[in-house]
Amino acid sequence: MPQSRHHLFRQLADHQWEGFLKGVEKEGLRVDTNGFIAQTPHPEALGSTLTHPRITTDYSEALLELITPVCRSTGEMMASLRQIHQFVQQNLGDEVFWAASMPCELDGDESIPIAEYGTSNIGKLKHVYRQGLAVRYGRMMQSIAGAHYNLSLPDSFWRFWQDALNNRDSLQDFKSEQYFWLIRNFRRRSWLLMLLFGASPTLDASFVAGVKHNLDRFAPDTWYGRNATSLRMGDLGYHNNAQASLDICFNELSTYTATLDRAIHTNWPPYAKIGTRRGDEFIQINTNVLQIENEYYSAVRPKRTTRSGEKPIQALEARGVEYVEVRCLDLDPFSPLGISEAQVDFLDLFLLDCLLSDSPRVDDDECRRLDDNYKDVISQGRDPSLKVCRGGQRQAVREAATGLVDELASLAEELDSLDGGHRYRDALQTQRQKLGTDGQVPSARVLQSMEDSGLGHREWAMEMSRRHQQTLREESLAPDRVADFERMSRESLAEQKAIEAGSTQPFAQFLEEYLRS
Questions:
Q1: Distance between CA atoms of 63 and 25, rounded to whole angstroms?
Q2: d(CA 341, CA 283)
Q3: 3-state SS class at 459
Q4: How far apart are CA 152 and CA 70, in angstroms?
Q5: What are phi and psi of 218, to 5 degrees?
Q6: Reduced to 3 states, what is the DSSP secondary structure of residue 113?
Q7: What is the dihedral of CA 5, 7, 8, 11, to 10 degrees?
Q8: Residue ranges per structural domain of the chain
Q9: Distance separating alpha carbons of residues 81 and 433, to the nearest angstrom
Q10: DSSP for 363-380?
């Protein structure tokens, strides 16, 4: 009888375990003193959003995105993220970095400034892509913030793992196959992350002004989902009809890139009706179901760092999967960084177990069940009567969640024995406590805190944001780190100018060549 993957890992990890490689991308809105989305341009002290390696913007000029380098430990990654936050907070003036995933006060689409990246063709392309999101889905959806967690395993692990499994493929193909093995199990279990980390059960009334919804009133300016864990990931958040028609297959790299490529090259009549230009202004890159790969919303993505001028699909097909990106994480409004060490350690444990557990291909029927689990926990996860499908059986959501968490105990002990500490058992216990009779998942904790304070979404999130700002500003960023960030800002601005000076091709011609490549 072949040995289980968990058993093989225990046998081999002692000899060749170097831990995880990890990084995080954390988004957050800049907000004015009245709790309204900032209308100011990206602060010059933070450098160029086109070329800065650590600080950029996501959809909106007001939606900052902070990016850590690839790190070898949770402590190193969190220290890096904290330093970036400290530098940003020192350069926001009287503006505030919003702590919640669901946005501050808005006044319709026009109040959300689309991000600018300068006059170069690549900068214009990034702006036109965002214009396309605006005409397709509206800007409101694009004002939502979250955290993306990136994880990979070093080649030293993959080489001994390949030997253990007696695999004779190229290392590149083996890694891609194994990352998709992990992703298939991630999709089976991702509902658990929405229960444990969903933290957006409320939203400001301005977000749904004139929109039909089934939320309940929490306060005069606040709506909430009575049992919701994450409005960010629900129908009012990252959701649209065109993408609902997609059938992106996560079973293996070839099916993933093929189905994604088809969506990028399939015309969508409502988008064709809009067209690509309004007068001389480009308003979307093309009229297909997806303008580019990044438009596809999913809880997880296989990723490969792209080279200059290269598209994500091309990078994946040429060099295989490099890491996985977990995209379904709400900001933790109780944390100054929007994410915690215990959460990161749990994600490492969770993702490694996805790799070590059996992972058959997902057929259409299972795919529908997985989607239903995910959607149900997003919208009703705190309802004790909710049942999810696990292993072909219907189980109460808390019972199923506790079972999944408990199954990680032996792996947590194994990793702790390799690291010589107890961080993984502690991280597991932190999640276990949330599911206990006296515990609270984050979405319940948010509602309880708001109720105790007597504040609605806007005022409560503003209070948390100011508290985090004060904490981070009171912490002293070492002078050498300040100098490093100031140098990065100067160099990024100079690099943008150099790119713009060399960008002489008419944009229409540049775009035509980009779409042909």
A1: 12
A2: 41
A3: helix
A4: 10
A5: -100, -40
A6: coil
A7: 160
A8: 17-199+232-357+449-516
A9: 26
A10: -HHHHHHHHHHHHHHHHH
Helix (H) or strand (E) holding 63: strand 63-67
3-state DSSP call for residue 224? strand
C-beta neighbour count of 398 within 10 angstroms:
20
At residue 255, what is the residue type?
T
Question: Is the confidence at residue 1, as pLDDT, over 60?
Answer: no
CA distance 213 to 140: 15
The enclosing H or E element of 127 equals helix 121-137
**Does 244 have pLDDT greater than 90?**
no
Q: What is the DSSP letter of 336?
A: T
Of 340, 357, 420, the C-alpha closest to 19 is 420
49, pLDDT greater than 80: yes
Residue 417 neighbours by CB under 8 Å, 6+ apart: none
Query: What CATH architecture is 17-199+232-357+449-516?
Result: 2-Layer Sandwich (3.30)
Q: Which residue has the tokens 């929007």?
A: 338
> Pairing between strand 387-390 and 55-57?
unpaired
Which helix or strand (DSSP H or E) is residue 481 part of? helix 479-501
**Distances in whole angstroms, Cα of residue 262 to Cα of each of 125, 214, 266, 271:** 21, 34, 6, 16
Tell me what percent of the residues of the chain surpass a pLDDT of 90.
Answer: 90
| pLDDT the model gives residue 240 | 56
In degrees, to the nearest 5, what angle opens at C-alpha 502 toward C-alphas 497 and 508? 110
Kindly state the average pLDDT of the residues 48-75.
Answer: 98
What is the Cα–Cα distance from 245 to 268, expressed in whole angstroms? 11
Are the C-beta atoms of 154 and 162 separated by less than 8 Å?
no
Only one residue has tokens 């949330």, namely 434
Backbone angles phi, psi at 11, to 5 degrees: -70, -40
Instruction: Please report how the helices 341-356 and 409-419 are oriented relative to each other, as an axis angle in degrees rounded to 10.
Output: 110
Q: Do residues 303 and 321 lie in contact, with contact meaning Cβ atoms separated by under 8 Å?
A: yes
d(CA 108, CA 252): 40
